[in-house]
Design a protein that fits this description.
Helix content: over 70%
Distance between the termini: 35 Å
Number of helices: 5
Order of helices and strands: HHHHH
Largest sheet: none
Structural class: mainly alpha
């Protein structure tokens, strides 16, 4: 799992935040990552795999991970890729030249 902490935000140009601000921003970034990662993972699954993973939602986190590893063995790479992409987007928001 990605740690959305002070160091992660600093890597993408966000510095000087309080602990409370980091927590609020991390919560928002995490929600966006859940959406992006879920969309990419779902796009690569068959209907049967989607059904199997959906059925795992009531199970323990460990059981869900076993199923996720089976139906999407590259999910960790997807998480890394989406996390880096979102970080770069955040970085570019602060770059005034990105809007010119």
């Amino acid at each position: 799992m990605v740690s959305l902490d002070k160091e992660w935000f600093a890597k993408y140009g966000i510095k000087g935040l309080t602990t409370k601000q980091i927590k609020l921003l991390a919560d928002a970034v995490y929600k966006e990552l859940e959406t992006r990662v879920g969309t990419r993972i779902a796009a690569g699954m068959t209907d049967a795999q989607l059904d199997e993973y959906s059925a795992s939602m009531g199970k323990s986190e460990d059981e869900q991970l076993v199923i996720l590893n089976r139906v999407c063995p590259d999910y960790k790479q997807i998480v890394r890729s989406e996390t880096e992409a979102l970080g770069e987007e955040i970085k570019n928001i602060g770059n005034k030249e990105a809007f010119i």
